[in-house]
């Protein structure tokens, strides 16, 4: 197993006196069990740490990417990552604040474990002195009897403490209540830390601050069972300045799987970052140095219309997730769609995925441009469509249309991937033949 080839280009910023200082500057430490001792552990020599990813979907998402990049920063500083994919915790499900999770079939969870393991492997280096290790908590739970679980692990937990965990308390105060199954999740996660400490001398767990109750479940268990102090570190929840939820595009999660969120859609997501948020996003989601980010911050203040910081953010993150070749292809597609490049030379698959992210419609060979404008919603009526054509504001594949009776495929033949319909400079749609 090996990570992506572009991992070798990643570096921590040497302008900081310590890894801890860089993590603080990037806004990545929201809460920790003991920040002074955590700093000592991170700065004094290599430690083994872990982060868990539950297979509750067939792909990781942008929230998981925060944790993967934190892991990579720790690895670049010489620490040893354990990437845990929860084959057993994924069968149970972390309690949601509002309602019980639907339990997925074991076969489905096993498939998702494999997919998530492959995704995790792209972001970490599995070779060298700080090689990462992929682990699955099903390995130490599948043969564990209920009696052994209750006697060896459950005896260390106090129900009163468990009831105070945020997710549990929220569910207890809701109409849905909480099942014993989900109530037990924090014990299973705590056991992960115990087993990883015993097997790998793992002394730190990282995760989102919304998981803080589960993270401290592990530190408490290790302390009670073995009289050893270990660490937990929680990253902040990322929020957008405009009040919208981070990591959502058109209300849907932004996934790391290209089949679920295309590279083009991922690139556009970052390109649309608000000026108020873009510098914080550069700190969290890129390996750009402090000097580079401060330079981009100045560009936001002085030349916001150029969108230089957003363009760099989109390029960096798309490369992290999908590689430089895909990033190059989506940049070319993005520019060509807006008339700054030739459509004919684009990768057909990239262009098609880009067009499907736009308002789009399926047409027949005789569909007129005016009809297509209405069917894609770029115009509300045929009369409005004809006026738009007469005013010279409509194009097909970046060629202006002057005849309000023109058919979509003439005078310029459609591309194999589809047809680019444009009204004005920035309002686009995709057309596909039935």
Please tell me about this protein's structure:
It is a single chain. The chain is an alpha/beta fold and 434 residues long. It folds into three domains: 5-235, HUPs (Rossmann fold); 238-347, Tyrosyl-Transfer RNA Synthetase (Orthogonal Bundle), CATH 1.10.240; 358-434, Roll (Structural Genomics Hypothetical 15.5 Kd Protein In mrcA-pckA Intergenic Region, Chain A), CATH 3.10.290. The chain is built from 19 helices and 13 strands. The protein has a six-stranded mixed β-sheet, with helices on both faces. Strands 9-13-12-10-11 form a five-stranded mixed β-sheet, with helices on both faces. The protein has a two-stranded antiparallel sheet with strand order 7-8. Strand 10 and strand 11 (399-400) form a beta hairpin. The two termini are 43 Å apart. The model has no long low-confidence stretch (mean pLDDT 93).
Q: TL;DR?
A:
The protein folds into 3 domains: 5-235, Rossmann fold (3-Layer(aba) Sandwich); 238-347, Tyrosyl-Transfer RNA Synthetase, CATH 1.10.240.10; 358-434, RNA-binding S4 domain (Structural Genomics Hypothetical 15.5 Kd Protein In mrcA-pckA Intergenic Region, Chain A, Roll), CATH 3.10.290.
List the helices and strands and how they pair.
Blueprint: H1 19-25, E1 31-32, H2 35-44, E2 48-53, H3 62-76, E3 80-85, H4 89-92, H5 106-121, E4 133-136, H6 146-153, H7 159-163, H8 166-172, H9 180-183, H10 185-200, E5 202-208, H11 212-226, E6 231-235, E7 248-249, E8 252-253, H12 263-271, H13 278-285, H14 290-302, H15 308-322, H16 324-337, H17 348-357, E9 360-363, H18 369-375, H19 382-390, E10 394-396, E11 399-400, E12 419-423, E13 427-433
Parallel strand pairs: 2-3, 2-5, 3-4, 5-6, 9-13
Antiparallel strand pairs: 1-6, 7-8, 10-11, 10-12, 12-13
Helix pairs in contact: 10-11, 12-15, 12-16, 13-14, 13-15, 15-16, 18-19
């Amino acid at each position: 197993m090996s990570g992506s080839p572009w991992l070798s280009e990643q570096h921590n910023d040497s302008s900081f006196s310590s890894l801890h200082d860089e993590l603080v500057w990037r806004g990545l430490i929201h809460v920790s069990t003991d920040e002074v001792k955590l700093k000592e552990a991170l700065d004094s020599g290599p430690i083994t740490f872990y982060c868990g990813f539950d297979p509750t979907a067939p792909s990781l998402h942008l929230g998981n990417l925060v944790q993967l990049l934190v892991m990579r920063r720790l690895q670049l500083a010489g620490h040893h990552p354990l990437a845990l994919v929860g084959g057993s915790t994924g069968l149970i499900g972390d309690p949601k604040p509002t309602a019980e999770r639907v339990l997925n079939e074991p076969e489905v969870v096993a498939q998702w474990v494999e997919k998530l393991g492959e995704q995790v492997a792209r972001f970490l280096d599995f070779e060298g002195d700080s090689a990462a290790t992929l682990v699955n908590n099903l390995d130490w739970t599948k043969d564990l009897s209920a009696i052994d679980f209750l006697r060896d692990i459950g005896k260390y937990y106090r129900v009163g403490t468990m009831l105070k965990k945020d997710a549990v308390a929220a569910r207890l105060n809701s109409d849905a209540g909480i099942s014993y199954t989900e109530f037990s999740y924090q014990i299973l996660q705590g056991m992960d830390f115990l087993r990883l400490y015993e097997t790998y001398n793992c002394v730190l767990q990282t995760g989102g601050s919304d998981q803080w109750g589960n993270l401290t479940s592990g530190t408490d268990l290790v302390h009670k069972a073995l009289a050893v102090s270990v660490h937990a570190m929680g990253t902040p929840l990322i929020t957008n300045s405009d009040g919208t939820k981070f990591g959502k595009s058109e209300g849907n999660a932004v996934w790391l799987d290209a089949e679920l969120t295309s590279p083009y859609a991922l690139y556009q997501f970052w390109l649309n970052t608000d000026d108020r948020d873009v510098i914080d996003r550069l700190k969290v989601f890129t390996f750009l140095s402090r000097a580079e980010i401060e330079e981009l911050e100045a560009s936001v203040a002085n030349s916001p219309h150029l969108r230089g910081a957003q363009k760099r953010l989109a390029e960096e993150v798309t490369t992290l997730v999908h590689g430089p070749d895909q990033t190059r292809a989506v940049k070319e597609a993005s520019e060509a769609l807006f008339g700054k490049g030739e459509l004919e030379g684009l990768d057909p698959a990239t262009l098609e995925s880009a067009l499907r992210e736009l308002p789009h419609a399926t047409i027949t060979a005789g569909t007129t441009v005016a009809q297509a404008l209405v069917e894609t919603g770029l115009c509300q009526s045929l009369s409005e469509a004809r006026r738009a054509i007469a005013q010279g504001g409509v194009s097909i594949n970046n060629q202006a249309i002057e005849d309000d009776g023109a058919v979509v495929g003439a005078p310029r033949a459609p591309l194999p991937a589809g047809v680019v319909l444009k009204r004005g400079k920035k309002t686009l749609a995709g057309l596909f033949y039935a």
